[in-house]
Amino acid sequence: MKHTSNQKMLRLIYVLTAANLRARYRNTFYGVIWVLLYPILMYGAQVFAFTVVFEVKDPNYPLYLLAGIIPWIFVVQSVEMCTGVYLQWGHALKNLPIPALIIPSIQLLDNFINFFGAYFLILMFYVFQGKVTAAQVLISFFPTFSLVAFVSGMCTVFALINVRYRDLKFVLSFLFSLLFYLTPIFYSINSVPVSVRWIIGNNPFHFLLRPFQELFINGTTDNFYHYQYVAFFMAFISFFLSYLAWRKLKNNVVFYG
Amino acid sequence: MWCFMVDKKILIDLNNVTLAFPKANLEVTSIRDIFAKKIKKNSLAEDYKVVLRDINFKLRSGDRLGIISENGGGKSSLCRCISGSYPLSAGSIVRHGDIRALFESSLVIYPELSGRENMSLLAEIFYDRKKHNIPQILEESLKFSELEESIDLPVKIYSKGMLLRLTLSILSAVPTDILILDEVFDGADEFFRIKLSQRIRKLISESGTVIFISHQEEQVLDICTRVIVLKRGKIIFDGDPQEAFKVYRESRNSLL
Description:
A: mainly alpha, 0% strand, globular, B: alpha/beta, 3-stranded antiparallel beta sheet, disordered N terminus
């Protein structure tokens, strides 16, 4: 297989991510602004629906929603963007000395920049309101890291499987629509009846979003550290699975991509 | 003569190179197919389509190797194995030096981006910033391509000839240790073909070793010092170019 030095690989990730971003926003009306606005509007609509329409009285509810909805949008958009990536790049990978391993990372980084922009803007709003401290914003680096690492591993696996099973994208789209309701994003795990709590409680995305929710609602309590360690473990598992999938399926990328 | 051959550095060494694709991967392309196969009770036999069988040869510094075969004979797959794009099913390839392989004369990564941006990307992909002066390569290549007027337009509106100018100008700018050229002259207009031909010949003369694929007998005889004939993925001749074309023609006639 192609051998590329780590330095060259990082350079390629940088130049291709920059090109990906430029290509996505070129010729689109206010492209960058729209991509930033989309999660903010989604968040705003949910806050309106729950606090005004359903009259949820908890003053921390908008912050709780923020801790779940924006990372969730990042997860769903990353899966959408990355699953078909080896089919889009198949021709280029056959003809150019680009290591196939970096391709999902390029899409993921592109999406992460959008996620980071939207998240940062909303957090700054709450910082100025005094509901979030600068320390909490800084510490949110850890849940963000575990989330991105988990999604990176998961997306690599999906992208590799999609080379052979090309309808995977549609199956995932359906599954993630279901998962949205099975993940404590707009409701709390404590409000779920005990008889079915194990379903929601064992959802891997619950473990990834929980550190965000703990951090912004309760601060750096023992619960935050507990769930953060679990999130790191989940990220490690995801990375390990992507390594196994890469070893088994990498040849499919150049042959059938 | 023998002493001279020994002194030449081996740049590529292929030992029993075999390439095969699992046929099951070609038959099943969706999750739905798995169920369909199960219902029809069709077995997904681990049957393989063998593309290359037991290929052995060495290339030394200064060698100019041509590879000829009928369509689907394995020329491009062999070159992709040598360049490292395709993983081998069996055997090994030892490479000494940098490889640059041109399989496609009009490469576009992002059609929405301008010619200048795509040219710059190709330079980043094919060249090493530590070894090459990329801004200088870009400037020289742009001048050679004569695309100055349209270089800031999106590549999606370029004609095939313009894409070829853009790609080949940048990829033929600097010599390399191992150069693989797979039908690079196809699609160029007459004027640019002559200009490009001179540049490629200079590139070939300055590169360590060259593997050249073309259906044009004249080009192969002009450039190559040695030619391999492939038939259904196997080498049936390796040696003198004139002799190679004789073998190739005979093998084709035997198929008719």
